[in-house]
Amino acid sequence: MRARVFVTLKPSVFDPQGATVADALHTLGYAAVQGVRQGKYFELDIDAGTPEDARRLASEAADKLLANPVIESYRIEVDSGAAEAVR
Amino acid sequence: MKFAVVVFPGSNGDHDAYHAVRHVLGQDAVFVWHKDTSLQGADAVILPGGFAHGDYLRTGAIARFSPIMREVNRFAEGGGPVLGICNGFQVLLEAGLLPGAMLRNRNVRFQCEHVVVKIEHTDTPFTVGCRQGQLLRMPIAHGDGNYYAEPDVVEGLEKSRRVIFRYATAAGAVTPEANPNGSVDNIAGLCSETRNVVGLMPHPERACELAVGSADGLVLLESVVKSVGQGACATAR
Questions:
Q1: Fewer Cβ in 10 A, N or C end of chain A?
Q2: CA atoms in the 13 A half-sphere facing the CB of B126
Q3: Which helix (H) or strand (E) segment is B82 a member of?
């Protein structure tokens, strides 16, 4: 089973990389881009019986390692592609 | 006294720290591999600069799970002096031994230069030999040194006098211009609630001899020798 974990900086945290990418897009003429937030994307192939089990394991992995709760939050999708807000 | 210098795969300040302790300060030093499970009876621990585990995922994120970190935790809990330099500071943050996290430098550049930091408090094992307000010129070399913590955490740090180093101008003014990376409140380093764990982004071990441009960093290492010599640190061997 595949779980997709999207890790992003919390809205309150300034994202220097996202801001730089936004500047570059503006330089390219994409004035309509109002903001960019950069994050990380993980695909976890998990040996799990049910999507719920896979989600639980991915969530544990995100809590322990993939995301730093001081600055980041995450959301997880399992196979079906349905997004679920975890935090 | 004896220093343990922890070596992670990707550490690059380990030999600088070893050299400063052993050849400049004349104290005993041992390298401790990150997979080791003993600090070899050291009186102080240095987590050196570098790029542990290639900085993959986040700086220090993987290093915190190295077997030696259990011992470092235990040593710190027992009151032993622990110094995290640059990447070592980042490891301490990820390990939860110090609060907060590092973001990419505000200007998104790797900053490699000498900076000035102001000593805010002298009641830690690594600053006991400093004067309050003393200015130290030391090099920085990092891409992720933009210290961040939630506003209430920062307020708590200030109230409990745990901000130990602040980026300042050569005249000692704490200004935005003196801040090389965007750190909140110009924070360059801080200590634990128990004050024995200290982390900072500048490299004191690379500023211990005039031949390399500055010897200002030596006082931090001399401080811990003095501190341990006076029995001020309860080390958990």
A1: C
A2: 31
A3: strand B82-85
Cβ contacts from A onto B, under 8 A: 39
Residue B10 in any domain: the answer is yes
DSSP state of B172: S
- CB-facing half-sphere around the CA of B113: CA atoms within 13 A: 11
Closest partner CB to A13 (pick from B57, B93, B103): B103
Residue B234, in any domain of the structure: no
Contacts with A17 from chain B: Cβ below 8 Å: 104, 108
How many domains, in total, are found in chain A? 1
ipTM, two decimals, is 0.85
Angle, vertex CA B144, rays to CA B68 and CA A11, nearest 5: 110
Q: How far is Cα B59 from Cα B56, in angstroms, rounded to an integer? A: 7
pLDDT less than 70: residues of chain A: 80-87
Domain boundaries, position B66? 2-229
CB contact A68 to B (< 8 Å)? yes
CATH number of the domain within which A24 lies:
3.30.1280.10
Q: Which residues of B touch A40 (CB under 8 A)?
A: 57
Per-residue three-class SS string for chain A: CEEEEEEEECCCCCCHHHHHHHHHHHHCCCCCCCCCCCEEEEEEECCCCCHHHHHHHHHHHHHHHHCCCCCEEEEEEECCCEEEECC
Taking CA–CA distances from A17, the nearest residue in chain B reads B108
B86 in active site: yes
Which residue range forms the structural domain that includes residue A70?
2-85
CB contact under 8 A, B105 and A16: yes
Catalytic site residue B121?
A: no
Would residue B205 show up in a list of annotated catalytic residues for this protein?
yes
- The reported pTM is 0.93
- Cβ-Cβ contacts under 8 Å, A68 against chain B: 58, 61, 94, 101
User: pLDDT by residue (tens digit) across B114-162?
Assistant: 999 999 999 999 999 999 999 999 999 999 999 999 999 999 999 999 9
